[in-house]
Amino acid sequence: MKGWKEVPEERCGNCKYFHQHYTRDKRGGYSPLWCGHCTHPRLKNRRREETCPHWTAKDKEDPRSS
Fold it and tell me: Which residue of 6, 7, 12, 60 could cross-link 46, Cys pair, CB 3.0 to 4.6 Å?
């Protein structure tokens, strides 16, 4: 689409090792932040739009659905 920037799929936010951080609002709900952390090969802070050589696709099936 004209005016929209293509975002490659291989970003930290789409990696199986990325864990999203959330903030809790006054009503008890949660909202995602634009940051999180990576657990491979060691723990490090990451933003969703970053990339790294350890990127691995997330599994298609949600493990919480079982």
Answer: 12
Please give the mean pLDDT across all residues of the chain.
85
Euclidean distance between CA atoms 1 and 61, whole angstroms: 29
Place of tokens 């060691």: 42
d(Cα 61, Cα 12) in Å, to the nearest integer?
18
Q: How far apart are CA 12 and CA 57, in angstroms?
A: 10
This prediction has a pTM of 0.70
**What does residue 45 show for φ and ψ, rounded to 5 degrees?**
-75, 140
- DSSP annotation of 44 reads E
Lookup: tokens for 63: 């493990």
